[in-house]
Amino acid sequence: MKSVQKALLALEDGTVFEGRSFGFPGEKAGELVFNTSMTGYQEILTDPSYAGQIVIMTYPLIGNYGINEKDVESKGPKVEGFIIKENSALFSNWRAERSLTDYLISHRIMGVEGMDTRALTKHIRERGAMKAILSTEDLDASRLIEKAKASPGLIGRDLVRGVTCERPYVWTESNDTQFLRPSVKARFRPKVVVIDYGVKFNILRSLRDWGCEVTVVPASSSAETVLSYGPDGILLSNGPGDPEGIPYAIETVKQLIGKKPIFGICLGHQLLGLALGGRTFKLKFGHRGANQPVKNLHTGKVHITSQNHGFAVDPDSLNPKEVELTEINLNDRTLEGLRHKRFPIFSVQYHPEASPGPQDTLDLFGEFVKMMEKDKG
């Protein structure tokens, strides 16, 4: 019988939790956060926005439908560690190809089960997201606490350089239409340049669903380089960490304002807010899950959205003569969307491409296409 390997999680505030390893053994530091989605663990594991973070899943049973090679949002897992209540050793789904355990081990990702994820989540909600360390190697609690305190955290750190593409590439893959509503065909095929701060594949697939020709460029690309592709529009992608930690990206966005239609998603929304003269701030424990209610301030309509972010744009810091606030989060009233009053520019804090989560706001990609078509004349 295989022996169970003990694992410890130590938080910078001195709290320690014990569990057992089911992934790759080792030791990893990161900001401890929680995700409230019931499904979608594969998409969560591979979302580049989770770089630098140890993720807790609040749903108690994870792994029951296995892993397949299609439902990925990047080339591999990006989390620092993965904590769950119970790992399902047996999996059942007609698309499944391997178990969650095999997947984590093959990608050298730490996975720990048997922790009280309810107590962990409650602790973070009360105290806020914090630095932590997960280990199967060092089981000395006091030593691990000191390591957690000494770890770098997220504020001011550039995590984008570790997840962006190394060189430009053309994306051609669309979504499998048997799982999605039929795509609305654009009357023209707009050329979109996506600045990759850690882009999820489903953003690229969704652009293709709407008939776009998609070129992806590294986060460090200059405005001149972006415009050299002759785009009809520019998409600022999602990505990990603190937007103020990537000043080169803020400067590029500043230089692109007014040149072409721009659509920002998540980190792209925050970078746009900073480029427009606003400020960002760190949320107490962030929004991570597939069930965040967002209200459109124009229509009054509420959408349920997929979200993954620990920072937000301060709405009071934006110039009301230039920027219109379009959406708010109904849980904590934080800003979820903005639009420029003169230029064809808009952005959202949530993830309209979902994966995982509801597809309430997929039409925003169509809105972007219409904006580009109108700008083209």
Supply database-style keywords.
alpha/beta, 9 helices, 377 residues, 10-stranded mixed β-sheet
Distance between the termini: 69 Å
**How would a crystallographer describe the biggest sheet?**
10 strands, mixed
Order of helices and strands: EEEHEEEEHEHEHEEHEHEHEHEEEEEH
In the predicted model, the low-confidence regions spanning at least 5 consecutive residues are: 178-183
Shape from CA axes? globular
pLDDT average, as an integer?
95
Proportion of strand residues? 25-35%
Tally of contiguous helical segments:
9
How many strand segments?
19
Strand order of the largest sheet: 10-12-11-13-14-19-18-17-15-16
- The assigned structural class equals alpha/beta
Report the radius of gyration as a whole number of Å: 20 Å
Helix content: 10-25%
Describe this structure in words.
- The protein is of the alpha/beta class and 377 residues long.
- Helices cover 21% and strands 30% of the residues.
- The strands form 3 sheets. Strands 10-12-11-13-14-19-18-17-15-16 form a 10-stranded mixed β-sheet, sandwiched between helices.
- Helix 5 links the parallel strand 11 and strand 12.
- Helix 7 crosses helix 8.
- The longest helix has 14 residues.
- About 2% of the residues have low confidence.
